[in-house]
Amino acid sequence: MQFGHFDDQKKEYIITTPHTPLPWINYLGSKDFFSLISNTAGGYCFYRDAKLRRITRYRYNDCPRDSVGRYYYIKDGSTIWNPGWKPVQTELDSYCCRHGMGYTVFESSKNDVAASLECFVPVSDNCEIHRLTLQNNTETEKELDIFSYAEFCLWNAADDANNFQRNFSTGEVEIVGSTIYHKTEYRERRNHFAFYTVNKPVCGFDTSRDSFCGTDSGLAQPQTVLEGKSHNSVAHGWAPIGSHHLKVSLKPGESTSYIFVLGYVENPADDKWEAPGIIKKDRALKLMEKYSTDAQVDAALKELHKYWEKLLSRFSVRSEDEKLDRMVNIWNQYQCMVTFNLSRSASYFESGTGRGMGFRDSCQDLLGIVHLVPERARQRILDIAATQFEDGSSYHQYQPLTKKGNADIGSGFNDDPLWLIAGTGAYLRETGDFSILQEQVAFNNDETKAQPLLEHLRRSFGYSCAHKGPHGLPLIGRADWNDCLNLNCFSSEPGESFQTCSNMESGKAESVFIGGMFVKYGSEYADICEHSGFAQEAAQVREQVEVMRAAVMDAGWDGEWFVRAYDAFSTPVGSHVCNEGQIFIEPQGMCVMAGIGLKEGLADRALKSVQEKLDTKYGIVLLQPAYTTYHLNLGEISSYPPGYKENAGIFCHNNPWISCAEAVAGHGDRAFEVYRKTCPAYVEEISEIHRTEPYVYSQMVAGKDAPSFGEAKNSWLTGTAAWTFADVSQYLLGIQPELDGLRVNPCIPQSCKGFTVQRFYRGAQYNITVDNTAGVQKGVGQLVVDGVQMKENLIPYVSGKTEYTVKAVLGACE
């Protein structure tokens, strides 16, 4: 069942009913100011940090769900309705929600009154713009009342949700004309505030939620709207809101528009204070003036469209498969940008009050955006590296506002250091900008301990070298990629009562997965060293890589697949000797991507085991058999019911690892089969089962052991986006940036006769045609660049050249 459809020309997903299985959302904003908006106008906004600079409130566990947002009530006599259907839920005569690139539009009608609500965040300003356009399609004059509504958060979202004894006394607003200023906590010299304004005179307002809703009413039937008159309430403590009342008179066929601006202002720290609680409004007034007319809003929308057109033009494909083209050209890259901006911090599944930005997460997100915004990728790498400790380990998470590590979570996730090499390597291959390696970066944000970025990479690799276990495999620490595999949580001997480890470093649990990472990203680090003039170090690194490769081939091989890990007692996890959790997806993907066992035939056997034991119609599950009881020596992974999350759920993040691995092994048919199973555009027809948005990836899908097999959760903010784009663009379509140029190395189904790619790379446009009339899965037989046949499938980088015409012919060529 479908609840909408794609419009590829406009780069939109058009939702045709408000009754979607879950709220289907979009993200507005591209730099500092971000908003989440659902297909019924729910959601919230914040400046940079969803915890520390939350502007509007949201209630995650509320019922009915998604019941707080930016609402516009239209009162037409006794009929009250909303353009986005909620919260009144009056049945509409027509409805559609168009989610586009950085904007969302609601188009609805009731009683021959048409409403269009356009919502977006301008490219360069910290505000959310709502343009409400009403048209009278009757033959008589219409008298309407419009009531806006937004509920302010008291800035720190975590404190706002629990510190009521204080917060109920701090709400403070100021009303000037048609503008409502939310200045709670401004008197504490935090020099930031929010405002909510409309570009026309109002006949009333409310800033108290109790006054607007009434003591015993909610947003579905607010007292102010039912009465048709605002109370002009001024909030003092309790729950501050912003609501405007406008009266509209429309002649037959007439239309009119109203521009609402919900903005954030932060005055410079050196501004002089007039008095406690008195806000300086000059910046806010300039923002209001900038978006006060339809022409100004049209210009801002045009700028937004150009922004996304320019970004998305940097990589595009044209093939025989419109769903492939749709995801590669539009939605996958769009989601990569959203995920890069927010990491895992704020979605409809992440409250924004806890984890902030992840070290590992942010490094992986770089893989999907480095070709889009290399300059921002550069800064992100430096920010991430600054949360690293001198020994090469790092904070696992950091706050986006302060860019400082989250001490509550701390460190000890032993895969983190290698991800910094992965992200930096991706940047270097994309840009050729080796100057970043000489940038001075602090350790633990202590500038007195700054070292070049290259030294940070050196210590990342060194940390992994120095932390090996009894089998010569990397110690797992608190966890590796799988945060729920906590093999050092319990340190006593078998048969005794388990005690929590006080010192994770004393744990001996090892990770075969990190061993695969060590080989893959250690090899990349060796290449970086060699290109930086450190040939001796590169040779030493490669020696360490080969030692690890041998350890994985020895202790990490189970006979038909790679072992997942060894626990604190050196008992294998993810082995045929286990009753449950015999095979895991992670090492099969990462080890084969690293090239381990390719020549020996182990890679093919591991991938065959994945297909036989882990594959399902909705994707590859994380492990099998699922854990049916809680295992103290494994930690959180077995706390989930079978088929959910890490306990045998379909973790979409590492499905592309298998697709990449199949491509490395030359299996184009299988690589694309794996790609399609979790790709949103290919599962749109089963949206009633999948439930989450059919235009973006979700973190996980319930596995075959779950009662809700096929149901997705945690959409939008997931490493799936970046990894899938890396998979489809570099491994399947095979356009691979390297330190010395661009390599063309596709791995595609035999039935695919070819495709074209336009790729912007290091200041030049590459127009690439791939010819597969031979019907092979992999192997470039001939590469012609600007009429010259290359000796191999690498297009060497030529400084100053701005365009390349490339033709790659797959299969044997005479």
UniProtKB/TrEMBL annotation:
Short name of any one Pfam family annotated for the protein: GH94_b-supersand
Glycosyl hydrolase 94 catalytic domain boundaries: 307-734
Domain Glycosyl hydrolase 94 supersandwich positions: 11-292
Keywords tagged on the record: Glycosyltransferase, Transferase
Biological process, per Gene Ontology: carbohydrate metabolic process
GO molecular-function term, one example from the UniProt record: carbohydrate binding
PANTHER family: CELLOBIONIC ACID PHOSPHORYLASE (PTHR37469:SF2), CELLOBIONIC ACID PHOSPHORYLASE-RELATED (PTHR37469)
Name of protein: Glycosyl transferase
Organism: Caproicibacterium amylolyticum
